[in-house]
Amino acid sequence: FAQLNVVADRHNATYEVGEQMYFTITSPTSGPATYHIQYDERSPFLEEGTIDVQANVPAQIPFRAKEPAFVLCKVNQFGSGATAAAAFSPYDLQPYEDEPADFDAFWDAQKAALANIPMNPQLEYHANTNSSTTYKLSLANIDGRRVYGYVSVPNQGSNFPAVLVMPPFGGGPNHVTPENAVSEQLNAITVAISIHNAPAHIGDNNAYQPNDLSSRETNYYRYAYMGAVRAIDYIFSRPDFDGENLAVMGVSQGGGLSLCVSGLDSRVKLLVNSISALCQHSGYRYGKAAGHPYFIFKSKVENVDINHELATGEASKYYDAVYFARRFKGPSLTYMSYEDVTCPPSTVMTANNQLQGTKIIVHRREEGHDSPDFWLGRFSFFRQHFPSTRNVFTANSDDLGYYANAGIDKIINVNQSLSLNGIVEEEGTPNTQLPVTWEKISGPGKVSFSDQFSRSTTVQISQAGDYILRFSAEDANYPVNEAKWLTIADYVKITVQ
Fold first, then answer.
1. Order of strands across the sheet with 14-15?
2. Per-residue model confidence (pLDDT) at position 438
3. 261 near 268, Cβ under 8 Å?
4. Is the pTM here over 0.90, yes or no?
5. 8 CB contacts (<8 Å, ≥6 apart)?
């Protein structure tokens, strides 16, 4: 049925800062429509107004962003609402504030304290299928707490890779369940953990409490991060683990936790995250988008104390995925939704921009806090990077997905001509059709490409220093006729003497 609709005037809803774009409104009904544009639901309006709409005739709202951002345009006509999103120079999004100088020292101290606590693993049989067996799992954590969850193991074989699954938000009964289906799809050990101090099938009445956000030592998520490290300790203690191939993955809160854990523990080799929380907490201080669970906003509303709010802003930096992400150099797969008001896309993209390993981003223009592609798409990513998960007797077991390689790091002299050769693969086969781009991400001098849009190019750099270059491709037709697309990228470091 015809209904009020608003959409960006470009299929991928992506523009450069300063570029004119339009939100296009269509409606089956004539009459005025009100609208407002903002970064997220907790930020001030950037623009608002009223526009006259004629039935079945497109009407346009112009907008031009002054800085890298995602924005939401919300339209209402006679009580009927519609929303569209747009991105402006999204690959230029960066943290608003510097990380604490003692960021690593703080977390090293937390890990050292955990290492002094015996793991004391407790296993209890839970269930089995023809292909896997699942056990309830309990491990000792910091402050006298325990980590609870499930471990699922394939019934046949050994020397398995492993996947740590971080939980979505919640603390009730069965908010965490076994991931035996993942074990069977990948022939891998899976460990799914809760972040609370009670068995997952029972739930924790004290979930997320106590939680003083104004101190880095009393933020509840400290238990979550250390619980994940303890689960990794357990995985590495298992004789049937291959000792190397460990992935971490999650959705929403679990996606944010996965980003943080991948940077916190160097034993993680692969990252899969979807519509991720815990990103860009400081955004709220600048009237911009901030990630769930909105630490600074929550302090402001619940405490009504500027000193508590300021302290929360500083303490929350120790729990921000944007700073953990820059410490992870392995392959990553990210799902993001442009109309997500729970975990705003600008916060997810800021964290993703810190990741400098080979990566895939699945963009969804018209999804909210959801990413249905995640549940199947992650398997091809695992098969691409963990060879032992291939040829498992499951559907699409030969699907390897996408892959990009910018080449190995190089050392050159100032103004020396250097050849670069980027590779894009789809299903294990070179794809020479997707458009590609080379670009400078960081470095003190000028970078000149002979052909910025060719897989094979040469580069000259004008000044000594360290440079990061990104090689990326986009599949705008993934899949055809749907409002979603893929970005595939990799990074190379050039040291200029």
1. 14-15, 80-88, 69-77, 31-38, 45-53
2. 98
3. yes
4. yes
5. 21, 22, 23, 24, 84, 85, 86, 365
pLDDT for residue 1: 41
Q: In the chain, what is the straight-line distance between the N-terminal and C-terminal CA atoms, in Å?
A: 64
Residues of the chain with pLDDT under 50: 1
Which residues does 420 contact at the CB level (< 8 Å), separation at least 6?
A: 406, 407, 438, 456, 457, 458, 459, 469, 471, 492
Looking at residue 481, what is its pLDDT? 67
Given the DSSP bridges, would you call strands 31-38 and 69-77 parallel, antiparallel or unpaired?
A: antiparallel
- Beta carbons of 60 and 92 less than 8 angstroms apart: no
Per the CB < 8 A criterion, the answer to whether 258 and 264 are in contact is no
User: Is there a contact between 437 and 452 (Cβ–Cβ < 8 Å)?
Assistant: yes
Please tell me the total number of residues recorded for the chain in this structure.
497
Q: How far is residue 335's CA from residue 486's CA, in Å, rounded to a whole number?
A: 9
Residue reference for tokens 């995602």: 70
CA–CA dist 148, 151 (Å, integer): 10
For residue 99, what is the DSSP state? P
